[in-house]
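Hi R.,

Here are the chain sequences for the assembly we discussed:
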Amino acid sequence: MKRSEREAAVRRIMERAVPPVPPDLWGEAVRRGERLLRHRRVVLRVLWLLACAAAVAFAVWAAGAHPWVEPPSQTTPPVSGW
Amino acid sequence: MRDRPLSREARRAREFESFVAGAAGRLLHAATLLTAEAPDANPRARRLLTLALAHTYARWDRLRGEDPYDCARQHLATRFARTTWHRYGVFGRARPDPGSPLAALTPRERLILVLRLYEGVAEEQAAALLGLPAERVHALCDRATATVLHPARQPAPRAVGAKAAAS
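And here is the predicted structure of the full complex:
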């Protein structure tokens, strides 16, 4: 028996019993799909909110602390009286 | 502002409904073969299919020309591959219904046989989907074909008896 004949025989065996499609399948799939979309939207919104909050917090802290200014030296006293 | 998304949702729902009407029968048959349940008592296959369809629905607007049937089939196969080991792994083959034509096979053999022969997916694509080398898929497919055609050679006498009684 050749490979193609074997495959055709298995295909016939597999296609014998066709299960009936339940009538509420579409509604159930749409309901679950909508829920997935809703969850995804909520997660996206929360992540955006967190990102915005982090940006605002950083801006406030930077405005107060001026991290770009060189800190005054602790080891060498300023030279004066030359 | 409120008007546009509503009409888009309505369009999506309509398109999705016609897609389900066309594809659900074939996908449900494939899912029932995968789970090796009886054709008229297949809660696991229905659940698999519902989740795969829901995933396709959620991706509907971002398919960008991709075939929704491919998307649903891929999701069905990967979900089956992912969930099968902790459902079937410990208790082995005791679960499959003897009325299914693929009851004598392991879940992975069933998955390969359904993808390759029932759905007609190319060997390389099936291998990529399952993360196996193509030669391995070839060998597994051959072995599964032999098991389905000649169940007497395999150590599964109960399945043979059930098949003989059924036909």
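Helices of chain A lie at 3-14, 25-65. The CA atoms of residues 53 and 79 of chain A lie 44 Å apart.

Let me know if anything looks off.

Best,
T.
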